[in-house]
Amino acid sequence: MNCTSTSTKFLRPAATVIEKPEGFVIEADLPGVAREGIELNVENDVLTIQGKRGAVTGNNGTRPLYRESSSLDYRRAFELGREIDRSKVTARFEQGVLQVFLPKAESLKPRRIDIAG
Hints:
By secondary structure, the chain is mainly β. The protein has one domain: Immunoglobulin-like. The protein has strands at 2-4, 15-20, 23-29, 33-43, 46-53, 74-79, 90-94, 97-103. It is elongated and about 80 Å long. The mean pLDDT is 86.
């Protein structure tokens, strides 16, 4: 699995990739994004994570005078290897962190072979 960068019109969220015996987990930090603002796609062997941040306004439509964080949306892409079972990819979002589980194909998982006799 490889990570690819995207256009400079988006913020690239910090991500951690963890390998487990049953698959890979990608944890991407998406602060300021609601669950409804996340789009997750697998197309042409590429997993794309996009997060739309809400507009920053105060009460009565006021806008901040000074802001240290960017208002750009998030986008990050990961190239998937043949070892990923794309039909079983799942995700969950909790406290600003998106977790994507990418299971390994059954043929690549370790298995015990019984000996007859």
